[in-house]
Amino acid sequence: MISKNDFQFKVIIMIALFALLGAFAVTALLLGEYELSPRQAFDVILLKLTGTADAARIHEIIVWRIRLPRIFLAALTGAALAMSGAAYQGCFRNPLVEPFILGASSGAAAGTALAILFPRIFVHPQLSAFVFALSAVSLSYGLARQRERTPPVALILSGIIVGALFSALVGVMKYLAADEQLREITFWMMGAFYYANWNDVRTAFAAVTPCFLVLFGMGWKLNVLSLGDDEARSLGINPEPVRLILIATGTFAAAVCVSIAGIVAWVGLMMPHASRLLFGPDNRWVLPASAIMGAAYMVLCDTVARSLTGGEIPIGIVASILGAPYLLWLIRAKGREVYGR
Question: Where do the domains of the chain lie, and which CATH numbers do they carry?
Answer without folding.
Answer: 4-336 (1.10.3470.10)
